[in-house]
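Dear Dr. V.,

Thank you for agreeing to look over these. As mentioned in my earlier message, I'm a first-year student in the group and I'm still getting used to reading structure tokens, so any feedback on how I've presented them would be very welcome. I ran two proteins. I've put each sequence directly above its structure. The first is here:
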Amino acid sequence: MSFNSVTPTPAAPSGLLAAHAGKRLPLQVLRSAAGHYLGTYDDGPVSRESVEYFPTREAARHALDTGTWTQRQHP
């Protein structure tokens, strides 16, 4: 008998500020007129989690993947 081993992938980090809205939502790259940012989305933007705005989607994704961004502390 053989078993297939599945290595769980880490869960996407959840938005800290989205919790203020009573939601547990994964962080993702979003865009506004000011630039790309890390935030949460649920039928529309819920929270902007990053202090920074990034010039490109790729730069924002890199910051999310590497943890090189600053979490906003207040909505």
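The second protein is here, in the same arrangement:
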Amino acid sequence: MNSEILRTNVESYKKLVELLKSEGFEMMVDLTVVDWFRKKEPRFEVIVQFLSVSSNERKTIKVFVNDDDLTIPSISDIYPSANFYEREAFDMFGIIFTDHPDLTRILMPDDWQGHPLRKNYGSGRIPVQFKNAPRVDQ
């Protein structure tokens, strides 16, 4: 199976997705975000994978999102399957997909503060108590 990685910017992202759709990429397979905290600037990279079943080909788009506004166009009007992936990226990383039909939290409660998959998000601490283990107070 042929695979190609395409790098673009936020301004050209949606046009590139439309081009892939017109070239016969029937499916948007995955959309995710990588947090390059303290490794790269801009910090967040949106990665979207497409599949053409008819030509047995895959393409991946990688686009860095500006740290100042964290916005990128939604592609849910082109690929309806992107809807829930974009909501998850918003919920977990805080990426804002402009013109999304319902950009609300999907995994966390509506009143949750922050975005849990960001690398600088506090991990918290929950003590673990094993069955029949002696209790240890700290």
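From my reading of the second output: The domain at 2-98 is CATH 3.30.460.80 (Beta Polymerase; domain 2). The longest helix spans residues 10-22. Does that match how you would interpret it?

Kind regards,
E.
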